[in-house]
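Q: What would this chain look like folded?
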Amino acid sequence: MAGGPQGELAVKNADLAVATRSAEAMLHEISASTAVAEKEKSKVAVIVSDVSNTAAARPTRRPLPAPAVPAGLSPYSFTVMRLRLAHAP
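A: My prediction, written as C-alpha cells:
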C-alpha cells in the first residue's frame, strides 16, 4: 500500500503547518488593528472629556421673561398689537 496512513498523516501535518502559519499571521494583524483602534478610542475619550468639561463650565441660559401685558388688554390683544407693530410698513 503506497501512501497508506503514514502518507495521509504527512499531508495532514503539512496542511496543519500551513494553517498554523496563516493563523499566526491573522492573529498578528488582528493585534495590530486592535492596538490602532484602542489608540483612536483613547483620543476620542479625551475629546469627549474636553467637550463635556467645556459644556459643564458654560452657564445655562434662562428664557426671557414674557413681556408684561398693559392694563386693559388681554394677552391675545397684546400679542396682536405687537405683531401689527412688528410688521407695520
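DSSP finds two helices and no strands in the chain.
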